[in-house]
Amino acid sequence: MRSTETIETVVLVDAENNVIGTAAKRDVHHSSTPLHRGFSVFIFDSLGRLLLQQRAYSKRTWPGVWSNSCCGHPALGESSEAAAARRLDYELGLTRIDLTPVLPNFRYRAEKDGVVENEICPVFVGLTDDQPVANLEEVEATRWVDWIEFVASLEDPATDISPWAILEVRELLASDVFNELYRSRTTGRAAV
Questions:
Q1: Could you list the residue range(s) of the whole structural domain that residue 36 is in?
Q2: Is 2 inside a domain boundary?
Q3: Which pLDDT tens digit goes with each residue over 163-180?
Q4: CA-to-CA distance for 189 and 172, rounded, in angstroms?
Q5: Does residue 4 form part of some domain?
């Protein structure tokens, strides 16, 4: 059973990730979005495939764009890992996934159509062979993709993948923690 999504705020932070306040999620993303906390999740299956999600067309930021498995914002006092587990359940119906923080200090800024994302965004990796059940308020579609082919596709400038996912993939590929995790938990080929 999916948890009901009730948290509607984001945590505003300074450059050192100290809390300086909160803001309504619906109001925070605009042309001068303040720095805030987020998270990203990359879910793989035992074959080494990556779960992608297409963001719902109703989303304010990057509607209809394909991205990594799940993204979101922790609430005030909520750990990024707990927030990631909450959103995996809410958006994709996926539960009981062991998440490993691979890029705990990832930070990015991206802009599209006058809307800015500006986050300190830890990146988690998890493994499941369960099939997602998309919450259509959040997710337009999902698909499993071969990791190696997905990485290669990012070299094409026409690829319509969220900019944060592209940046995160580049850092994951350079991470010894990620490469060991991928090799040890999947039957897929080497991480690249």
A1: 9-185
A2: no
A3: 999 999 999 999 999 999
A4: 15
A5: no
Annotated active-site positions, please? 71, 119
Whether residue 117 is contained in a domain is answered as yes
68 with 168: CB under 8 angstroms?
yes
Q: Taking phi first (over 0 means left), then psi (-120 to 50 degrees means alpha), and beta for anything else, what does residue 93 get?
A: left
CATH number at residue 15: 3.90.79.10
Question: How is 7-55 classified by DSSP, letter by letter?
Answer: --EEEEE-TT--EEEEEEHHHH-STTPPPEE-EEEEEE-TTSEEEEEEE
CA angle 138, 134, 153 (to 5 degrees): 85
Residue 190 within a domain = no
Count of domains forming the chain: 1
pLDDT digits (tens, 9 = 90+) for 35-54: 999 999 999 999 999 999 99
